[in-house]
Each structure stands twice: as structure tokens, then as C-alpha cells.
Amino acid sequence: MKEILIGLGIGLVIALIVYIWQKIGKNDIEKKSKAEIARLKGMLADRMDIESEGLNKLKAENEELKKANENLRITNANLMQKPGRAEVNRLHIYQQAVDRLVINSPGFGAAWQSALKESEEEFAKTYTGTQAFWKKILPGKTNAKLIANNDVVDEQ
Hints:
The chain is 84% helix and 0% strand. The chain has two domains: 1-84; 91-138, no CATH class. It contains five helices and no strands.
């Protein structure tokens, strides 16, 4: 019986040593885990702060751009109401039509370019020399009446 008690005592001592060793190891793992969790929580908090600041900056920039867009829309609407803007728009439409004709009509391009060059030279002369003087005194001759009657106008 004494031997059984000695064996039981040795077994309990070994079990106690193993239990204490496991507790120490478990505490060490728990400390490492808690440190890792605290580090990850800190990283997560930092990332959330950074993302929130970035999101706030983007929202503020978006609001500024919306205001700038609204201001530009209002400015554009006001500019479209100014006198002469309809004529400028009409000139842009005419320019697009002429560009399409130049591309689509083979004979039109060369004739148009020469007529345009002559008109530009004549227009430039109206501001210099004696021709400008005569243009101020004498009204220019136009074919407006013939065009209004849908007649063919010969160049003069």
C-alpha cells in the first residue's frame, strides 16, 4: 500500500508539474495573443481614422466641385443671354455645315477655300488704305435682294 501511495504521489506531482507548465505556457500564449490583438486594434483604429479623414476630404472636395459646377452653369446661362450670343451660335452651326460640305463634296472644298481666302483679303483691305475710306463713304453693294427672291446670284 505504501508503494501505491508513493506511485500515486509521484503521479500527482508529475500531473501538477505538467498542469503548472501548461498554465505558464497558456498564460504566455494569452499574453502574446492579447498583445497581437491590441496591435491589430491599434492598426485598425489608425486605418479607420485615415480612411475617415480621406472620406471627409473627398466629401468636402465633392461639395466644392458641386458649388463650382453650379456657379459655372449659372455663368454659362447668363453668358448665353447676352446680346449677340445667338449670332455666335449660328456662326458655329454654319461653320460645322461648311466643314461637312468640304468633306462630303469633292468640288466644293477648293472653290470654298479660294472664295474664303479672297473674302479674308478683301475684309483685311477694308481696314487699311483708301478702300477703307471709300467703304465708309459709299455703302457696299450686296446681292441680298436677289438672294431673298431665291434667284441664282452670279459672282461679280
